Amino acid sequence: VIVSLLSFGVQTGKALSYINKQYFSDANGNRGGAPNVAVVLVDGWPTDKVEEASRLARESGINIFFVTIEGPDENEKQNLVEANFVDKAVCRTNGFFSLPVNSWFALRKAVQPLVKRVCDTDRLVCSKTCLNANDIAFVIDGSSSVGTGNFRTVLQFVANVTREFEISDTDTRVGAVQYTYEQRLEFAFGQYNNKAELLNAIKRINYWSGGTSTGAAITFAAEQLFSKSKPNKRKIMIVITDGRSYDDVRAPALAVHRQGFSSHDPGVIAYSIGIAWAAQDELEYIATDPDKEHSFFVDEFDNLYKYVPKIIYNICQEFNSQPRN
């Protein structure tokens, strides 16, 4: 955990903007796998806006804790730009990120509660972004109709999507399954915890060749990968196929959509990528609703690359539209 301790009472928003742009950088020692935390000590009457600066900092992955000491008197309240600035500045998690203190002399009593919260990494939800908060499973068609050359193109597509994410054991993790009539776990979540090793593992996947049992592959991915997914991770499945399945895909897809369904663990978000002879109805069964945001078709393997930015955009747009505060 990287902690920045700030103490100021006037231009709080500008100070937050400064640490967002300057402080948490690789050049200044920021470590990719560690949550970023800013502890803001403020005496209760900032005279500039903090909501926008705080939002931008949170979207950059900075967890902001506000320790407020005392507060403005009646005369000073008229100069406040944002009266409820703390509520607007922190993640809306029932006061987890805000710690009011009655006086500077009582500040020492806040140390232990604050340390406990900073060390509770599972609740540092503001450090979650669409690029670092996922468990992503690629379910890859290795059937005979794909062919060796096209299979390498599929792996390049998988690598190109993976490259966009922040990879580590505490960030996004990636697993892969290849399937024909049978299924093979190529690597599990967390088996490769840095991007270079992960991209090399994708490159080394050997083409299998055989039939096409997409439904069984979805069930296999649920059992072998998503059953071991972390509760605080967003579960994403990307199924890539070039033909109609020999088995039913509807029931397995519905089951995996609902896996772990709860307010904290909303099941698996499934994307389907169809190529050439893939069946449109099956792609729609596999994909999470709405289908147009989660299901894609290309007429030939060489056009797969065109959908990389669209998939990343959709993943991020969906992530950012969900309530996390």
From TrEMBL:
<dbReference type="InterPro" id="IPR002035">
    <property type="entry name" value="VWF_A"/>
</dbReference>
<dbReference type="InterPro" id="IPR036465">
    <property type="entry name" value="vWFA_dom_sf"/>
</dbReference>
<protein>
    <recommendedName>
        <fullName>VWFA domain-containing protein</fullName>
    </recommendedName>
</protein>
<feature type="domain" description="VWFA">
    <location>
        <begin position="135"/>
        <end position="311"/>
    </location>
</feature>
<dbReference type="Pfam" id="PF00092">
    <property type="entry name" value="VWA"/>
</dbReference>
<dbReference type="InterPro" id="IPR050525">
    <property type="entry name" value="ECM_Assembly_Org"/>
</dbReference>
<feature type="domain" description="VWFA">
    <location>
        <begin position="9"/>
        <end position="118"/>
    </location>
</feature>
